[in-house]
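Appendix C reproduces, verbatim, an entry submitted by the partner laboratory led by Prof. M.T., so that reviewers can inspect both the input and the predicted structure.
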Amino acid sequence: MILSEKISELRKKNGWSQEALAEQLGVSRQSVSKWESGASIPDLDKILRLSEVFGVSTDYLLKDDTAPAASPIQEAVPLAQAGEGDVRVVSVEEANAYLSLVAQGAGKIALGVALCILSPIVLLLCVGLAGAEGGYVISETQAMGIGIPVVLLFVAAGVALFFIYGRGLDEYEYLEKEPIELAYGGVGIVRKQKDARAASLAVQLAVGIVLCILAAVPLFIGAALNENGMGALIGLSLLLVLIACGVFAIVRSGMQRDAFDKLLEEGSYSREKKGQKKIIGPIAQAYWCLATALYLLWSFITDDWSFTWIVWPIAGVLFAAVMGILALFDKKI
């Protein structure tokens, strides 16, 4: 059990309401409610008072288990490990605020990515109508006049979502780069929330991967039915729709999963991996900016949007190769 659960359990065992406990501690009922929900952590003096009121040790309250703690001071005052430099202490309130911000913004940022993927669809369909068999439905000039503004509109909307909802996360950028330590009780609270969301996030990730895998199906069907006409373009459009939906699910679930890992310093955000990001981060930004510029340049020059999308899977494979080469040259990466 974690601190919030122990406070709630001990209060109920004594038959007290939240108001009754709050009165004994000299705090508001809302404070007790926040402690029990894990939204905040009582101050150290309130921990001492809680141990007196409940008749238990501070060790028991502070340790995220039922066994007596060897030293409550070590739990209450996080310390940097020897040789790791300064460690930033993150309060429970700050951790909860960050998780809430990510939960609210993940869907919006994922939608921004999806809009960028969907942006060429109208242009593709207009180009198909301009070259339709049996006569032009619309002219090539009309196709460009309709399709290109829609591309720019979708991309602009996606970038706006990145800026609006991504900007709010800038103040938590240190979670990716600096060694951190959650304040006492924080690890248990964050891990409890992560475990509660694990199944849901895993399902979202699985759905996203499946959609991306199945995305090629309508392309092959459309090409088989009408190799050089609207059938192929409709298939390609459906491919982009499925990829957009899949990427939406992957990004949305991935951002929330990463938020827990950042706070717990697990997975890609362990202290060792944070050192890697100082080198990989600028390289990755430059790489993907170059890939995007190449994609747009090639697409507008050739006007072959039905083929230039292949830049992205190739860029993804090459990126993994680049990171692997960097790792061979520097074991610290």
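The CA atoms of residues 287 and 319 lie 8 Å apart. Additional entries are available on request from the coordinating office.
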